[in-house]
Specification:
About 35% of the residues lie in helices and about 20% in strands. By secondary structure, the protein is α+β, with helices and mostly antiparallel strands. The protein has an eight-stranded mixed β-sheet, sandwiched between helices.
């Protein structure tokens, strides 16, 4: 694999303990944090925000954070929205309805259950006419989506917004997925350094002797129980002094990511 070099201009983050990227930096510095406020998804119009399910609000929240940090125009940004499980709460409700009273199935709920629902809400709310993608790769969703976004950045020589998120499971789905809390993150990626560049990323395939930087022990709890939290080792390096991490992109396949902060 030819090394892929690209640049980070914005970072978004939300979990029950971490309301944004600044909260992650504070946690790594030893701060004791209160519970995060619910995702505001402020870029959605008020009516759409009321109608939008939790999965959409989470994805839009982290995407909006990364966008605000970058200063980019959302109407021109290609975007990749990723989720391992989609909206588990709605999927559980649909399955329950199908089992008990199929004729009562709501078309709106079906519309919200699909993996590209966050991309649809985002592009409509921001007036974006650039390409959008939806990625799902199970436990390796973040790594697969990062590779997809990086490939678009470099092939098209354009900035790309990547958002990866999953909400907690419900009912039998929770037993199957083990996803017991919400987590989302976003990166605004660009092909060249600019005035708002935060870090340089270099993506390669790892070799057996390629060492990586262990994630901080304080992130162990946040990293467990949600496939989207696979982003945390990379986010921790972006919040600190850089380093190297491995992130799965498929079964038995990883990305080796070198992170160099830009002053």
């Amino acid at each position: 694999m030819t090394p892929l070099e690209l640049f980070v201009e914005g970072i978004g983050l939300w979990s029950p303990r971490l309301g944004d990227f600044a909260a992650l930096r504070a946690l790594l510095a030893g701060a004791v944090l209160d519970a995060a406020a619910a995702p505001a998804a402020a870029l959605l119009p008020a009516n759409e925000r009321r109608r939008a399910p939790e999965s959409v609000r989470l994805a839009v929240e982290v995407a909006g954070q990364a966008l605000a940090m970058s200063g980019r125009d959302p109407g021109t940004l290609a975007c990749v929205f990723a989720s391992a499980h989609g909206d588990q709460a709605i999927t559980d409700a649909i399955c329950t309805t199908l089992a008990r009273a199929p004729a009562e199935l709501s078309p709106t709920r079906f519309h919200h259950s699909v993996h590209n629902a966050p991309a649809g809400y985002w592009t409509i709310a921001t007036g974006c006419r650039a390409p959008s993608s939806a990625v799902c790769a199970g436990a390796h969703t973040f790594g697969a989506a990062l590779l997809e976004a990086a490939s678009q950045v470099l092939a098209e020589q354009r900035p790309v917004l990547l958002a990866c998120s999953d909400i907690a499971g419900r009912g039998p789905l929770l037993e199957m997925t083990g996803c017991d809390h919400a987590f989302g993150s976003a990166l605004l990626l660009a092909p060249a350094a600019g005035a708002n560049t935060l870090a340089r990323l270099r993506l390669t395939l790892p070799t057996d002797h390629a060492a990586s930087t262990p994630p901080p022990a304080t992130l162990a709890a946040a990293a467990a129980g949600n496939p989207a939290a696979a982003a945390l080792p990379l986010l921790a390096l972006l919040a600190g002094r850089g380093g190297r991490c491995r992130i799965g992109r498929a079964a038995a396949a990883e990305l080796l990511i070198d992170v160099e902060p830009v002053a």
